[in-house]
Amino acid sequence: MNDPLTEQASTGVAGLDDVLNGGLTRGRLFLLEGHPGTGKTTVGLQFLLAGREAGERGLYVTMSETEDELRATAASHGWSLDGLDIFELVPPENLLDEAQKQSLLYSSDLELGETTSRIFEAFERVRPDRVVLDSLSEIRLLAQSSLRYRRQILTLKHYFSRSDATVLMLDDMTSESTDKTVHSVAHGAFQLEELSPDYGAERRRLRVLKYRGRHFRGGYHDFVIRTGGVHVYPRLVAGEHGGRFEHEVLPCPTPELDALLGGGIERGSSVLVLGPAGTGKSLLSLTFLVGAIQRGGRAAMFIFDEERGLLFQRALGVGIDMQRLVDEGRLVVEQIDAAQMTPGEFTARVREHVEAGVRMVVIDSLNGYQAAMPEEQALVLHMHELLQFLNRRGVTALLTVAQHGLVGDMRSPVDVTYLADTVLLLRYFEAAGRVRRAISVVKKRASAHEDTIREYRLGAQGFQLGEPLTQFQGVLRGVPTLVGADLEKQLIPDRS
Questions:
Q1: pLDDT digits 0-9 by tens, 71-87
Q2: What's the mean per-residue pLDDT of the chain?
Q3: Residue 206 forms part of a structural domain
Q4: Is the confidence at residue 223, as pLDDT, over 90?
Q5: Which of 40, 107, 326, 436 is most enclosed, with most CB atoms within 10 A?
Q6: Greater confidence, 175 or 103?
Q7: Of 183, 216, 235, at which residue does a domain stop?
Q8: What number is the average pLDDT over the span 298-327?
Q9: pLDDT tens across 135-145, in order?
Q10: What digits encode the pLDDT tens for the residues 451-491?
Q11: Position with higher pLDDT, 224 vs 403
Q12: pLDDT value of position 84
């Protein structure tokens, strides 16, 4: 029996091979469709270049672009097409002699037959292992009817199958886009799409419409076109990933915070930090992150909202030298532009660092991450898969969410509290003529925790936690009422 691995022809796009569970079945005909500009030609070139690397012959039949344009496209990606055969199929001129004018045949009949014959001649001359036919819209226009078009595609399919060639047909969907003739004939069909959000760069995604006899990863998968080709980011499926790790409890940086959290946070769990702007969500997350690094682990922080240099400067104010940790290779900090990056690419970035040994991930914040999503529900689904993946790999995740408002009843732009294992709530409150900050743990799945509310400060000494505010009532509303007699013992002393 043949080795199953040798029966697959790589597409030349690693992420697409992953989606297709190995690549394209050899000796079969496949359809790649999408509107102009979605990257079909680039994928077709990568398919042939992958074959060249494997010692296979490739033929590119172009009817919609000239050979010069095709070589210019390859050069823009830094590729050379040496070793590949390019056949520029120029449509025959619609000029008939006197004998042909008396014929009952239309010019399209003659052109279609001649076009097919010239494709076969080029194939016989090259005898390639891989073929790209660009594009089917020309053949569809010459066929002029669905019946003749289907018969023509079947003719091409049977001809190529006898030669055991793997064929990728490109369709730009510029005419009769509702015609699914090739979908039923092809062994597999893939669709590329380009979306235009109200703001930011265009978004591209692909979907496998069918693949006979093969299990593939369904749904939409983000991809981008950059110098060097198409990069596909397969949709994350947490169930495909797993690993064994010790379910240990990670102590917190300070004894008071450790007591508040009932001994610390569990490895592989997720922690959500909620609070209005300015309450110190980022810096609080950094204290956990530094604690993980001091225990010998590596960490990664993805920042959406704040400029990297400003964050480094603020961290120095609480005694955390982030630049030194980055230089030592113990911390990775990436600034993410939500208007430029797709959710799939972001997930791929996180996976890359996790597979490189990162054991704690900070996402600051989900407000910025939400901007990359078409709708809130998509964010929840993305986060669910991402957090499940991190949990299975034993990676602790810290997420921050900025709530609308400063005091009183506040709303979160997205509710992911049910996804997190631990939820920390930060609040402003007024007492003794000053604006102060309070922290409480409102949820912790793995163990018991304090149900108290404590004042905290972030300063040069780091994260400073006060005593439980037992003599106040209404702290979470922002304007508490003093119900005890000793105010000074409840608040952190003012050292200014």
A1: 999 999 999 999 999 99
A2: 86
A3: yes
A4: yes
A5: 40
A6: 175
A7: 235
A8: 93
A9: 898 888 888 88
A10: 999 999 887 777 888 888 888 888 887 777 877 666 666 67
A11: 224
A12: 96
The long-range contacts involving 437-442, CB below 8 angstroms and separated by at least 24 positions, are: 437/279, 437/280, 438/469, 438/475, 438/476, 439/260, 439/284, 439/465, 440/260, 440/476, 441/260, 441/261, 441/262
* pTM of the entire predicted model: 0.86
> For residues 320 and 286, what is the distance between their CA atoms, to the nearest angstrom?
8
Reply yes or no: is the peptide bond before residue 365 cis, omega within 30 of 0: yes
CB atoms within 10 A of CB 146: 13
Based on the fold, state whether residues 227 and 259 are members of the same structural domain.
Answer: no
In a domain, 225, yes or no: yes
- Cα 95 to Cα 102, 112, 142, 319: the distances in Å are 13, 14, 15, 82
Tokens representing residue 430 in the block: 């007024």
Last residue of a domain, one of 189, 218, 235: 235
CATH of the domain at 219: 3.40.50.300
Q: Which domain holds residue 42?
A: 4-235
- In the chain, the number of structural domains is 2
Q: Which residue has the tokens 């091979």?
A: 17
Q: Which of 320, 255, 168, 280 is nearest to 465 (CA)?
A: 255
Tell me if residue 328 falls in helix, strand or coil. Answer: coil
pLDDT digits (tens, 9 = 90+) for 236-247: 998 888 777 777
**Are 181 and 96 contained in the same domain?**
yes
Residues 108 and 142 occupy one common structural domain: yes
The confidence score (pLDDT) of residue 7 equals 78
Task: Give the sign of the dihedral formed by CA 297, CA 303, CA 309, CA 315.
Answer: negative
The span from the CA of 181 to the CA of 276, in Å, is: 55
Beta-ladder partners of 229: 226
Tokens linked to 373: 């999503």
Vertex 364, ends 358 and 365: CA angle to 5°? 135
Radius of gyration from C-alpha coordinates of the chain:
30
